[in-house]
């Protein structure tokens, strides 16, 4: 199986499909991470707030795969915005790693107005080698504008909720214009009926794949990275194989046009941890 990757602006290459680990606990994360790596995953996504970094790190160690072959993403919480170095070092201690491949500010938390300070620290931490790449999660274009204006350094990636019911076209266009990779969290829709959507099911039948694979192939077709979570071996394998599915342009457009009532992005001006 080919490992599909996306180039980040700083020179690293991000495996397109990651193993999402929320809401696994340490024990489940350890087991599933090892299993996923054995199936061919080379990118694992975790965070301080998931409370499973220890398990993720142990699963990576259990796999026996060389550290430099596994791309690890983690995120720190709002309490560390004024001291990102301590936040990231705590991430690393829990993971049992000397560095992460991608460190993200989990939420902008504009109420405390420290995300620019956190970003300045991440830039230094990248220079020190504690993170090979740096970025953000749940940042709006206005937040990103401020980071760029005040530091001159653009995040390499912004991780946002994204799926056909919430296609985030304007955010993705902003990212593309600034050389920022978009990564989708909850790409399969957070149990909102997306997997049962008639168009998705029809396309799954046409391409002879699963509904979940259709949605992840949409992510890939739009140039996004994506981090679906599963602990089922069959779904883990299917999710990873979605990178090899090529949807037609018309089918990608049809999926992007889907809508569902009551589905909105979390407002990161008012929510964040």
What is this entry, summarized?
The chain contains 10 helices and 10 strands. It has helices at 26-39, 53-63, 84-95, 115-128, 141-151, 169-177, 198-207, 211-221, 233-241, 249-256, and strands at 5-7, 13-15, 19-20, 43-45, 71-76, 100-105, 131-137, 157-161, 181-185, 225-226.
Strand adjacency order, main sheet: 3-4-5-6-7-8-9-10
What global shape is seen?
globular
Largest sheet: 8 strands, parallel
Question: Roughly what is the average pLDDT, rounded to an integer?
Answer: 97
- Strand proportion, as a percent range, falls in 15-25%
Number of strands: 10
Cα distance spanning the termini? 37 Å
Residue share in helix: 25-40%
Low-confidence stretches: none
Helical segment count: 10
Rounded to an integer in angstroms, the radius of gyration calculated over CA atoms is: 18 Å
Strand pairing plus helix content: what structural class?
alpha/beta
Q: What is the helix/strand order?
A: EEEHEHEHEHEHEHEHHEHH
């Amino acid at each position: 199986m080919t490992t599909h990757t996306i180039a980040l602006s700083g020179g690293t290459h991000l495996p397109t499909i990651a193993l999402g680990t929320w809401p696994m606990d340490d024990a489940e994360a350890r087991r599933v991470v090892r299993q996923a790596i054995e199936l061919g995953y080379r990118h694992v996504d975790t965070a301080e707030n998931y409370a499973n970094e220890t398990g993720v790190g142990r699963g990576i160690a259990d796999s026996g795969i060389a550290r430099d072959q596994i791309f690890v993403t983690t995120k720190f919480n709002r309490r560390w915005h004024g001291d990102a170095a301590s936040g990231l070092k705590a991430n690393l201690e829990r993971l049992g790693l000397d560095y992460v491949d991608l460190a993200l500010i989990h939420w902008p938390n504009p109420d405390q107005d420290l995300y620019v300070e956190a970003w300045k620290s991440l830039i230094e931490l990248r220079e020190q080698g504690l993170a090979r790449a740096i970025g953000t999660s749940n940042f709006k274009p206005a937040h990103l504008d401020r980071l760029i204006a005040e530091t001159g350094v653009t995040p390499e990636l912004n991780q946002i909720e994204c799926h056909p019911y919430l296609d985030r076209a304007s955010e993705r266009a902003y990212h593309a214009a600034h050389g920022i990779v978009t990564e989708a969290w909850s790409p399969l829709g957070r149990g909102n009926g997306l997997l049962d959507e008639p168009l998705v099911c029809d396309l799954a039948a046409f391409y002879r794949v699963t509904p979940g694979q259709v949605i992840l192939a949409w992510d890939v077709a739009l140039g996004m990275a994506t981090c679906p979570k599963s602990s089922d071996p069959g779904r883990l394998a299917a999710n990873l194989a979605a990178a090899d599915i090529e949807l037609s342009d018309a089918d990608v457009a049809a999926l992007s046009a889907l809508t569902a009532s009551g589905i909105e992005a979390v407002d990161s001006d008012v929510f964040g941890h």
